[in-house]
Amino acid sequence: MKLEFELLKLEVEGPVMHLRLNRPSKRNAINNTLVREIQTAFVHLPDGIRVAVLSGEGAHFCAGLDLSEVTEQTVAEGIVHSRGWHAAFDQVQYGPVPLIAVLHGAVVGGGLELAATAHLRVAETSTFYGLPEGQRGIFVGGSGSMRIPRLIGVSRMTDMMLTGRVFDADEGQAMGLSNYVVGEGEGLKKAFALAHKIASNAPLSNYAITQALPRIAEMSPAEGLFVESLMSAIAQGDEAAKLRVRAFLEGRAGKVGKSS
């Protein structure tokens, strides 16, 4: 199935799919079409894809919700709109492959909600983060109230929303909004290096890390540890895992160490 989009660019490099938000004149603000296309891309992954990279065309990753679509919504329409974002973003976070987001410029409002769905985030030095919903008279509706506090805590998110406080790339790195900070224009290179490294892992191991780990973190200790045992046994029983363990024991696999 060949995927064709209006507001997304899709490129494939071996096992890596690169999705690029493509509304640069609107600072990649998210409208209904873009939400649907993001969801479709992760429902219908091209064959052989093991990792996805998400970036934004132009000067910004994503400046948030396209407010022109919601100014006249009724309460009922607003609920449906929000739930559409939830469905799309759940498909991203809990889809079949890990996602790396490359951030630059504005990562604001709904753009930060989208970035929070990624499993890893690479921020360029131009990146800045904001949640201006308090100043707009609205509230997050794209799963931000659930995902963002898991990264930075409720207190910091409250500060951002109440006061309009903006954090730069280094501040975002320190508080957990990104995993890596790189120079301007270096984000994609870093993301693709990470993506190809991740793609070389056993698929079941990647799936367990992205699917089981966040769910276990939300469980009670007793339930979480039981699910951990189940997932550990399933992963170890996979033939790809057995081959890798044998390679390590026979000295054919590298040992853990600091790398650049």
Could you walk me through the main structural features you see in this protein, from its secondary elements to its overall organization?
- By secondary structure, the protein is α/β, with parallel strands linked by helices.
- It has two domains: 8-199, 2-enoyl-CoA Hydratase, Chain A, domain 1; 203-249, Lyase 2-enoyl-coa Hydratase, Chain  A, domain 2, CATH 1.10.12.
- Helix content is 47%, strand content 15%.
- It has a six-stranded mixed β-sheet, sandwiched between helices.
- The longest helix is centred in the N-terminal third of the chain and has 19 residues, at 75-93.
- The protein is globular and about 60 Å long.
- The mean pLDDT is 91.
Mind telling me the C-alpha Rg? 19 Å
Overall geometric form: globular
The strands making up the biggest β-sheet line up spatially as: 1-2-3-4-6-9
* Residues in helices, as a percent range: 40-55%
